[in-house]
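stuck on this:

***
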Amino acid sequence: MTQRVAIIGGGKIGEALLAGLIRSGRPVTELVVAERFADRAAELNAEYAVRVTDIADAVDGAAVVVLAVKPADVDAVLDQIADVEDTGETERLLVSLVAGLPTRHYEDALPAGAPVVRVMPNTPMLVNEAMSAVCPGRYADAAHVATVVALLEPVGRVVEIGEKQMDAVTALSGSGPAYVFLMAEALIDAGVGLGLTRAMATELAAQTIRGAGVLLTDSGLSPVDLRAAVTSPAGTTAEAIRKLEANGFRHGFYEALRANVKASVGLARAQGGSSRSGSVGTDDED
């Protein structure tokens, strides 16, 4: 049975999902995008030959509705979705790619019993290397989760988690690319400070990070083992790592992720969430 997918929001993440679905073989006739900016709508139509329309039209007849909008826009979008009668053979499934908001936020705004699956992707979705975590709401079953996993697999890896873990996942993998890019900036600046050209330092840092990532995912070895393989006793790498640790490298990451989790909780509260989504590793319990 054909399942039409409506993507609400034609930004970078929405486009990345659209492109991944098309590359995976899904007919463009089964896809529709809602995008409010005319110039952006025209770009998407020209690039992918996909129909781009308004929210109500996109949702009408769709089996799966994917929200790829900013958190501040969610409630207005939900109001429009809720107004569109579900006339499909199966219940319309809502998939949220929005950070910070728990599944109950969507369930409270939609008709009773509406299935919702929450997803935390990250920006490597743009190059088919996303790490996406999914968690079902109260009314989403295994078949709903399987549908979402199938949607996301063309653009990266997918894991299923409990919603209590979602803020921690957001802090680690959702925001994780930014930490890696910041590390790349730091490596490049240090290389320039040591006499390399910026172009050379950039090439060295980028390929080093790329290669290390492949080793970590494909070698079957732990980060500890991989680090040890590069770190000779009393050698240059050991001295560099000693300096990083002395300057709070590991502790800094822990504190950064804790701050990220607290920000996610604050975002949910600001958007009217009834309570936190069950974040771990914080000390701000209600």
Summary: The two ends are 46 Å apart (CA to CA). The domain at 163-286 is CATH 1.10.3730.10 (ProC C-terminal domain-like fold). The chain is about 50% helix and 15% strand. Strands lie at 5-8, 31-34, 51-53, 64-67, 93-96, 116-120, 130-136, 156-160.
